[in-house]
Amino acid sequence: MHDEVSHALVLVAPPDTIGRVHELLERMWADAPHISAIDRMSFETALIEVAANVIQHANHGNPVECTVAVDATGGSISASLIDTGEQAGLELSTVEMPEGTVESGRGLAIVKALVDEISYDSDGTVNCWRLTRRLGSERRT
Questions:
Q1: CB of 36 within 8 A of CB of 105?
Q2: What pLDDT is stored for residue 99 in this prediction?
Q3: Rg of the chain taking only CA atoms, in angstroms
Q4: Residues contacting 104, CB < 8 A, separation 6+
Q5: How far is CA 81 from the centre of its chain?
Q6: Residues of the chain with pLDDT under 70
Q7: Which residues lie closer than 8 Å to 18 by C-beta, 6 or more apart?
């Protein structure tokens, strides 16, 4: 069994950028060499997409504070993002890949394909995203 590894950061965007999340993940991967390249790439892509959405879409003229926590325990890697931005106003169960060459709207569909669990909740003051990927899991469509 592998040791538990956890890393977290608080970013405020602006001025912080998605680069801070990449740095967090670099530290995570350095401390968790047992996580395979495919699990790293899949999880990192999913987390960066959600974090970028928070930075880009939850900011309506005011800085957004976001706490990002990443944990590798047992056979999975998880992240939570808790932010003070605008509510996402979406239902994850209805998110699907758009047809054709439309690029907008693909992000959360890609996230759903890369992780085993994704959830979103808001109490009106903070939003909470949670992502989990089982290590070594075979990917679905």
A1: no
A2: 59
A3: 15
A4: 98
A5: 7
A6: 1-2, 89-106, 138-141
A7: 48, 51, 52, 55
